[in-house]
Amino acid sequence: MSFPSASPPQAEHWRNRFASLGPAFFTELPPQGMPQPVWVAHSASCAAELGWPENWWQREDWNALQVLSGNAAWPGMRSLASVYSGHQFGVWAGQLGDGRAHLLGEIRTPSGSLELQLKGAGLTPYSRRGDGRAVLRSSIREFLCSEAMHALGIPSTRALALSASALPVRRESLETAAIVTRVAPSFLRFGHFEHFAHHQKPAQLRQLADHFIAEHAPACLESDAPYLALLEQVARQTGSLLAHWQAVGFCHGVMNTDNMSMLGLTIDYGPFGFLDGFNPGHICNHSDHQGRYAFARQPSVAFWNLHALAQALLPLIQNEGEDPEAASERALDAIEPYKQAFSERFIALMRAKLGLHSAQAEDTALIDDWLRLLAATQVDYTIAHRRLSQFGVHDDPGALRDLFLDREAFYAWAQRYRSRLQAEASQDGARQAAMRAVNPAVVLRNHLAEGAIRAAQVGNFSETQRLLQVLQRPFDEPTQASDAAFPPDWAHTLEVSCSS
């Protein structure tokens, strides 16, 4: 289904299922628009998923720029900000909520209902000490990375559009405002459930869980224990997500429970980063002084967050009169599949990155030793895997070999790898093509994002638009060689923090 080209999305296209839960779950209020907005970029790919015509953003009758900049509304929209709580850096932070996000409702699409949300659209009751705005710098990063992750095949919220204004916003310095239109089947987080559990509101906790199961996890209704089934589903999806992050070298930077999606999506792009040199201890968030969210710790942090979710759902899992200790054990058992989901997906992804089409007992050691080899001298993670995609069973490893200072260690591993490929009669051409289809040439490195940001801050949005096109085809060799090159020396001075 697509919308008629002559009219914008009308009331019959919109759903407001979250709004139907009632005022305990949100505050209904209009967004605060930006004066004289301009388009920075829009995603044709995301618009196609919505079933919208290609020229949706240009149509005067749609008035899309004003709507997605918070200055107008389409019929059927109900703008609201939801309340949630959560643990931030491992500490209970109390009530949080959509401090700068406005949910516009759900729109019916060919693939089901998708929620649209404006990020940076002004104050809400949950803004706490914030201003409810997002700045152009961080909005470009979120817009580009949302679409880049989707193109990489990693579960993520999407970004439909990005608009900007000269409206001043104070961060470390004076910046300008922007609004990202985000898209997802649901923006529900672990923190939504923690909120009602912490405030001892079992009726609302049950209502929210029942809503989520009915709308987003109906298979759980087939279980005799649907809330345990829900917890297990979230655990498995989260395990798969973290495997994708670790395999591609993605650092989220701020894995608080309020930034964890109930659907296993990458959500809330703030101080994220893709690894340049492979350093398992890399901390991408300059605000993370203790290194809680370092790259190698991400899988264990996700499991910790699942414990917090299990604790929040415990009142639902515990049958009336049942021993609380037994209910707690059942909840812990329900998140245990996270470990298997993570390990199985990670090894499968890494086998694909190494071009192994069969599973052998020695693969785990081969993969682990490859990662140790990269970590020993912090070899560029993306470039190493891309060059590995050129490895020939009977050829000199050439460009790949040149990445390693310890040639003896590299040759020892390469011989094991060569023998492993020969054991499954791997054919160079077919394997190399398959590897290029899973080892990206381009990821959103910080210096690439910074180039787009600096141009945009002086009114030139062409680099953001160009980079979007490149990131949506990450496995193709880019026409601009610098997109896939080693980062320049100045890139090492870039820092991102929670304000990014």
List the helices and strands and how they pair.
Elements: E1 14-15, E2 26-28, E3 38-42, H1 44-50, H2 64-67, E4 80-82, E5 85-88, E6 91-95, E7 101-109, E8 112-119, E9 134-135, H3 136-151, E10 158-170, E11 174-184, H4 190-198, H5 202-216, H6 226-248, E12 250-251, E13 273-274, H7 298-317, H8 324-335, H9 337-353, H10 363-376, H11 381-388, H12 407-423, H13 428-436, H14 446-456, H15 462-471
Antiparallel strand pairs: 1-7, 2-4, 3-10, 5-6, 7-8, 8-11, 9-11, 10-11, 12-13
Helix pairs in contact: 3-14, 3-15, 4-5, 4-7, 6-7, 6-8, 6-9, 7-8, 10-12, 14-15
Properties at a glance:
single chain, 500 residues, alpha+beta, 3 domains, 7-stranded antiparallel β-sheet, two-stranded antiparallel ribbon, 15 helices, 13 strands, 38% helix, disordered N terminus, metal-binding, ATP-binding, ATP binding, magnesium ion binding
Would you kindly provide a written description of the structure presented here, covering whatever features stand out?
This protein has 500 residues and is an alpha+beta fold. It is built from 15 helices and 13 strands. It is globular and about 65 Å long. It holds the Pfam family SelO.
Structure described in brief:
The chain has 500 residues and is an alpha+beta fold. It has 15 helices and 13 strands. Helix 6 runs parallel beside helix 8 (324-335) and helix 7 packs antiparallel against helix 8.
Strand-residue fraction? 5-15%
**Low-confidence spans:** 1-6
How large is the count of helical segments? Answer: 15
Rounded mean pLDDT score: 95
Radius of gyration: 23 Å
The structural class is alpha+beta
Q: What would you call the quaternary organization?
A: single chain
Q: Report the span from N to C terminus.
A: 37 Å
**Which term fits the overall shape?**
globular
Biggest sheet features? 7 strands, antiparallel
Protein name: Protein nucleotidyltransferase YdiU
GO molecular function, one term: magnesium ion binding
Cofactor: Mg(2+); Mn(2+)
Function: Nucleotidyltransferase involved in the post-translational modification of proteins. It can catalyze the addition of adenosine monophosphate (AMP) or uridine monophosphate (UMP) to a protein, resulting in modifications known as AMPylation and UMPylation.
